[in-house]
């Protein structure tokens, strides 16, 4: 265990305001983008694909946590509608 070479962690990515605008706009339309969409966004914005994928994971988790906090602080208010997922919309049509 102690003899393994230590792996250096990658520096935290700083997103530009323009990139955040694009990512948030896409998230509002689709919280679960496909692999191809993630790749296209990464190329468009100039970030690694994995960085964009993790951004969506973190954003979904933050939304989930916000919904939980809202439910705790205001039990009489109805919860916001669940995020949309393209495959669910297709099965309803």
Which terms would index this structure?
mainly alpha, 0% strand, Arc Repressor Mutant, subunit A, 93 residues
What global shape is seen?
Answer: extended
Named CATH topology of the domain at 17-75: Arc Repressor Mutant, subunit A
Number of helices: 4
Q: In angstroms, what is the radius of gyration?
A: 17 Å
What is the string of SSEs from the N terminus onward?
Answer: HHHH
Number of strands: 0
Structural class: mainly alpha
* Beta strand %: under 5%
Stretches where pLDDT is under 50 for at least 5 consecutive residues are none
CATH class annotation of the domain at 17-75: Mainly Alpha
Q: Termini distance?
A: 54 Å
CATH architecture of the domain at 17-75: Orthogonal Bundle
CATH superfamily of the domain at 17-75: Homeodomain-like
Q: Describe the biggest sheet? A: none
What integer is the average pLDDT? 85
Give the fraction of residues assigned to helices.
Answer: 55-70%
Describe this structure in words.
With 93 residues, the protein is an all-alpha fold. The chain has a domain at 17-75: Homeodomain-like (Arc Repressor Mutant, subunit A). 60% of the residues lie in helices and 0% in strands. It has 4 helices and no strands. The chain has helices at residues 17-29, 35-45, 49-73, 86-92. Helix 2 (35-45) packs across helix 3 (49-73). The radius of gyration is 17 Å and the shape is extended.
